[in-house]
Amino acid sequence: MDRQPWRLDPRWHRWFDLLLVGGLLLPVPLLGVAVGPAEAGLSLLQIAPLALRRSRPVAVFTTVAAASVLQAVLIDQPVWGQVAFPVAVYSVARFSRAAPAAAALVVGFCGAVVASYDWLNEFDTTGWQALVSYVFFVAAIVATAWALGTLGRTRAAYVATLVERGEQIRREAEQQVELAAGEERARIAREMHDVVAHGLSVIVVQADGARYAAEHDPTIATRTLETISATGRESLTEMRRMLGLLRAGDTGTRPQPRLDDVAVLVAEAQTAGEQVEATLPEPAVAATVPAGVALTAYRVVQEALTNIRKHAGPGVRARIVVTVGRELEVLVEDDGRGAASDDDGRGLGLVGMRERVDVHDGSLTAGPRPGGGYRVSARLPL
User: Fold this and answer.
1) What tens digit of pLDDT does each residue of 49-59 get?
2) I need a labelling partner for 334 at 20 to 30 A (CA). Which of 7, 226, 349, 374 fits?
């Protein structure tokens, strides 16, 4: 398991700064006794502001730099408080922006020149060689502090960018999962609607016919009840298959309906006593249609027949034409009163058909046809 690098939390950052200031202030009382109160006061003035170096780095550096200037005016020698200057430069470079950090670097280089001249002048050592050595030494300390601070700021920004990018990727992945789940729910809803609506419509038609036939010919009623039983079992099997897809470990390997299975829908409707004529492609031609397109065509025919049973009225004649060429064309029309029937607006059949056809970049038209009745026409690219 990957482990995150150890880091101080904000509370420990505060304690670290307080301990740093406390450690640097430890020699100050001894400095006041050994050297004088002026040196001790200046050291305190330079070190104490470091307690706020994270939250107010520019103000802290300004205070430390001002105290260093005051030291150069009052005392012509280094004091212990000078250690606060590189810490302040580091803090500006680490916790502020690039512009204040660059300004602190320039001030540090100027301070290196002034301090070196001031300190060497105290010892009557004004040769250029000694001055250049001191300037380079002090400037190197300032530059090192600035470089470390800049590196820390750059690294922190890089880590923050990585964290933000990781969060964005996580959010996008969650959105993709939600979209995929929504699409799968819609697909399952369409499948269940097609299977259940078609099966129940056949059962209702057969049951109505059996009720009237039982009064005159019990034999017809028996055959009708057998059809109802077979249709119910087939619909139940389809339902179990689709629900099985929702369970882990169930592959749901039953083949999906193909284009040649449209003949089964026609035979089923004719067995139920419906007047349906169909013009279908040869099995060899139907076998060349891709499985996804074939399933969509099958569902369009299935839903159209279901709507005819529900809305077209009694004694209706239906015609089904399926042709395979440069594209797959499906035509289902009837001469009933489906176009004039009331629509409660809650049906999912046409919506499901359009969604299926749109997936394959096809087109679907559905509406009343000239002379009465209803027509559903779909075109699916191959």
Assistant:
1) 999 999 899 99
2) 226
